[in-house]
Amino acid sequence: MHCASCSALITRKLKKTAGVEEANVNYGANKARIRFDPAQVNEQGLIAAVKAAGYGAVVANEQDKEADKKRRFDEIRSYRRKFWIGLILSLPMLGFMVLSFLPHSKIHDFILPSMGIVSLLLATPVQFWLGAGFYRGFWSSLKMGTFSMDSLIAIGTSTAYIYSLWNLMSHFLTEGTVIGEIHDLYFEVAALLITFVLLGKWLEARAKGATSEAIQKLMGLQAKTARVLRDGETVDVPIEDVQAGDTVIVRPGEKVPVDGVVTKGLTSIDESMLTGESIPVEKKEGDRVFGATMNGHGSIEFKAEKVGAETALAQIIRFVEEAQGSKAPIQAFADWISSWFVPAVIAVAILTFAIWMVLGAGITFALLAFVSVIVIACPCAMGLATPTSIMVATGKGAEQGILIRGGEPLEAAKKIDTMVFDKTGTLTKGKPEVTDIIALSSTEEKLLQLAASLEQGSEHPLAESIVNHAKAKNLTLSSTEDFKAIPGHGIEGILEGKKYFLGNRKLMEKFNIDTKAIENQLQTLEEKGKTAMILSDERQVLGIVAVADTLKETSKEAVERLGNMGIEVYMITGDNKRTAQAIAKSLGIRNVLAEVLPEQKASEVKKLQEQGKKVAMVGDGINDSPALAQADLGIAMGSGTDIAMETGGIVLVKNDLRDVVTAIKLSRATVNKIKQNMFFALFFNVIGIPIAARAFMHWGIILRPELAGLAMAFSSVSVVTNSLLLKGFHPLKRNWLSDLAPVFMAVGFTALFLGFAKLSSATTEDMSSSGQKLPEISRSASDLDSPITRNTDGTVVIKLETREVISELAPGTTYQYWTYNGTVPGPFLRVREGDTVEVQLTHAADDEEASQDISFDLVPTALADGGETEDAHADDSGGAHAEEGHATHSIDLHAVTGPGGGSVLTQVRDGETKIFRFKANRPGVYVYHCASPHVPTHIANGMYGLIVVEPKKGLEPVDKEFYIMQGELYTAGALGRKGHQEFSKAKLLAEKPEYFIFNGRTGALAGSGALRASVGERIRLYVGVGGFVPSNFHVIGAVFDKVYPEGAISSEPLRNVQTTIIPAGGSAVVEFTVDVPGMYLLVDHSLTRSVDRGALGELIVEGPRNSEIFSAINPDPNHTHADLAIWVEGEPIDLSAEKYMLNEESNDPEKETKPHLHDGNALVIHRHKPGQSIGEFLEAIDIVATNRCITFDDQSSLGSAELRPTSGRSLCDEGVKRWQMFVNGTERPFDPSYVFADLDQILLTYGATEEQVSEQLQSLSDDACLYSQTCPERGKPPVENCVADPAVPCTDQ
Q: Which of 122, 375, 463, 1032 has its CA 20 to 30 A from that of 585?
């Protein structure tokens, strides 16, 4: 088989064969497992079916353990030989291809005449001898009515070969010779393509061989000979000749050849190769030994019991082989894609050829594109994604003593969120001992004798412990008549003509025997984790026998580690609740299913599954088998010989519960690896096919067919190599190489394509750097220096640089800004009244690095801007600017008293610097902007900022200062248009901006850019308008204590101002104190500019609440009034049950209490528990919610009978129904972790129509209106205890 398509073809052929019930062909293992009816078809018939599909097959020899290794070696050797032959034949043609780029060299002139015929002679054996397997595969797929990987190779190489042969023959028919310069010959394409594919197959075969190393290692453990005792003599025989019943002798340091029971001698044996346990196990007479384990220093004789295919090692090998040949459910997706992949690729290739022909590219160009598309497509990588990962993972699991039954349990283990442990024999050692004997009417010995005599007939572990305890005390046991076991209760029987009962309380209740007298003693024993059994006759209780099972040393650690992984742990047992709780508490298990009869375990697992949980059951694999079968994943505990292979999807050889954690971690790593492989297999084709089709040739990215074939080969190798990284898995260490592999593969694939593309095109230029991250255009509102503290005048040197920057205007929208120092607004300039200010303005040259953002040369030192050095962000338009005014910039500072505010002295072109000075003699806050023609264009594109001239007496101190400038942007595209937007001068002239912005872009002052302060702080905002539209500046939730209009900071301020008007080219200073925490919005109160067009900022204030200044008014002082309405299927959830009402012993408003309803309202819930999330609230009212699912644990929480399902029913996956969440009227993604904020109004609705959502939002608004400051719908202020009903007017209390 050459690829996954081959395995699919063979599978289809086998399934069509009469008598075949199931067929699974594993491309990774080169094996098929077939279940068939011998009455209809035999092995030879199956082999014939495979041959009819165009492939060969033989029956695998179970005895010949070296057959697989030899076959793999032969396959690797064959591919290696073919590759080297192909390379030798192709290298001369590769040389011809290189010479074609050196047309004027002497060697080119010498070889040119014979290139055509030599290429034909070299390419023909490669095409039809080395490539024969591809033609056979192509023919086989055609017979099956489909296409395969071989089809792609055959079609692609044949196209190149036949096209070249056609041109060669045309030359011969025209010129009468095959010597001379012949154009359009691509024999090297066909030859190199096949050679590179063979290279890929060679590397892939080597990698696949590595995936089966685990099997080879296990097989290598087997001893080759055995020393047996026959007819009184010791003879060495081949391992295959050992028979059950033989006496086998093992000397120190030798391997145990087969499984058996020790009959003589004492030794210690290293069983690590089977169990992973490094500590040798002591063996004496009667102990069991296993084949392939290593004997220590003693000599032993043992009786052979299991030989050949029955030994523990043979079972493990078979188990792992079956697992490696299995398919994970996710493989079905890969198979589905592969089935459509090849026909789709052929269609794309034909379409590529047709498009290039229509575009006039020429037959040669179109044909090479066709061939490249054909050969780069790789279904192999997709086919290898799953089986190679499973092969490595199951082998790795076997090394750890974890046997995994293939892909299905591996994938199931990845999804497990609930783990159910059986108690006896799983969490405990399963060897209980008698701890207490309490006799009420006789001696302890007599009581023990009666109990042990009864238990002789039972096979229960507890019965065995009682019998063993009696024998240890040398008590004589009586025979029991009419013995009867009562499952889940106990036993009964007749001793010396008298009937006795031994069991739990249920047994006593069944036969009306009073146990009140011993209840305290029973409880005491049970609270210690002991199982107490009551012995009685037909009239009264005779006594108590208590038994305790010892916990395994690793149980607690395993439970703790599962909890850390986010897996919920349950313990299931038939013990009474007290005993079970005591044991569970010692292990850290919170969830206990006690008093569960054996036949009820499966139903308990099913109940958990009905809650939406993915459940794994861990048991001993025998009496827990129904539960193991019911669970999403069964994990069976076992020993080297008694492995319940058919019971669980995973078998733990060592009986160590920590291996449960290891198995889950391994499965997660494996499924992640499968998904990585599948992603990159698709990623390869998604990237590779467009490149091969030459869709990016405009950027110099083209791919020659032979390099496309090499890239295809590398994709398969990379997938197998990625799977092999699972070999580095360790349960306690992170496999960094495996975790980082996706990054390396993404980078590697991209580099591979780009490298090959560059190699393919002799004219490819350097790759552009257009993909780099866009610079941030917005200047932070907090990017301003502290007020000036010096008392003397100085000379301030301000250095500004004009830059043109492409940056993000809004998410998904970019714009080319004109700026000072790379940001909008420009730097916040700060000088003192009386200072001499020197302004140095530089127009950044296209080929120069930008200078420092702002620099100063002061005597004494003063800072004009607190910014740090930034990189230049010059545009790439070159020196010849197309736009009018683009080539010249300047600066007009409104603080300057002189012509043009300095602009007449600072008209700078590319690379120029101009300097002027002015005296800062008038305190105030002033705008500066560019004043080069066309002046409005420069300003509209972002060239503005603020300069403050502080009075000599200084500014009044405040806690925080912020710098804000409002502007407009006139984009050619409409508001919200994605992509790069050009400046529209027409819209500027019409004064119709698309965007209003604070500090350069939408959202600049929100989120991470928001202004931040603490309660009680005094804030000063320097606000300017750089554009042409006056601003009605307002902070929602604040009153300005002081406003200095027009930036006149030396004048008397206006006080207690709600909104201040800032003219175009003007400024204002506002000061206010924040008294309460929360989010305050900065807006232009012409609100469409803020709500719809972008001029919206946030001020986040943190600190303690101040209810004297700001609080809600409502009937209950414990409320904080976060209003929540919940609807399902258009009906309100009825939460009026008493269980949801407030049960409050204290009126302390800080006390956390359960959610409740107010005034019996069935819709609106007022959250008063600080820090509570949506998910916590829903959980508290018995609703389990995920993004696309709602589950009612309690049917009383539904609003109407029509909606009320049976308890625990889930409303998942019903059409397109989903949760929607609205916070204060705005829809947000449904997020159970969202934490209520004070005064939030929240609507949660499930499966609602648009009309229903609108009605529900209005209903919530009507109810919440009661607590707002005014009720416009009712025209009255809120009144305490008013019923929240729109039909009832709010008048009097």
A: 463
